[in-house]
Design a protein that fits this description.
The protein has 4 helices and 6 strands, in the order ααααββββββ. The protein is an alpha+beta fold.
């Protein structure tokens, strides 16, 4: 029978966790938390942890597993939610289209791709007067589909309503992105782009409007919130 356990949950890591985090979590579970059979742990549970680690630590096996995991949640999203009601497109994760486990409260993220989900409170941001953007440089990573290896971009400026990025790849207007920054994560839609030359390199300046954003710590003009 096919094992339908979620390897990411078994190893207590996020689906976009790098191999270093996966390795560290595996070792912590086995040694420090004594999940290894030699330290008193269950042999059957240790076998599952070993299977999960073997899969997620191998890039080829992980890619195949991610596709199966993504396909499983996508099929669920196109069917019904846990209450038997047909899910409307606006109720699904904007990136991977998985359904929320419940009505999304402020701060909830997708259980599949970890993109911030827009809540009823978050929709109010569209009615607010635009706030000034703050110039800010920094490296961010983005995903235009799931599963996918993250791509790197440079932040130009940011506000509670949106962000501008410099990236090497052209992203079409209307594309939904998951963005992970040094102290925030967001789901956003591309509103516009233009070519820009920086130090002799042709890049793309991309303007995005947040669908949902979580600022993780108080810094400068921003505070911990979900837009």
């Amino acid at each position: 029978m096919e094992n339908r356990r979620n390897y990411y949950r078994l190893l207590q890591v996020q689906p976009d966790a790098p191999i270093e985090v996966i390795r560290a979590s595996y070792r912590t579970l086995m040694r420090e938390l004594k999940q290894h059979p030699d330290l008193g742990g269950s042999s059957s549970h240790a076998a599952l942890l070993n299977e999960a680690y073997k899969t997620l630590s191998n890039s080829t096996l992980r890619e195949e597993y991610d596709k199966k995991l993504f396909s499983r949640y996508t099929k669920q999203s196109l069917a019904t939610n846990t209450f038997g009601h047909h899910m409307q497109p606006h109720q699904l994760c904007p990136l991977c289209k998985a359904p929320p486990t419940r009505q999304a409260p402020p701060g909830q993220t997708c259980s599949v791709c970890q993109s911030p989900l827009q809540s009823e409170e978050g929709k109010k941001v569209a009615d607010r007067r635009a706030l000034a953007r703050i110039k800010r440089n920094g490296r961010v990573y983005y995903w235009s589909q799931w599963p996918q290896e993250p791509r790197e971009a440079t932040m130009i400026d940011i506000s509670p309503q949106g962000i501008r990025l410099l990236c090497r790849h052209q992203v079409k207007p209307g594309t939904i992105l998951k963005i992970s920054g040094p102290d925030f994560k967001a789901s956003a839609i591309v509103k516009g782009l233009c070519a820009k030359e920086v130090n002799g390199e042709r890049l793309h300046a991309v303007g995005l409007s947040f669908l949902a954003v979580q600022f993780e710590s108080s810094r400068g003009s921003f505070f911990s919130t979900t837009a």
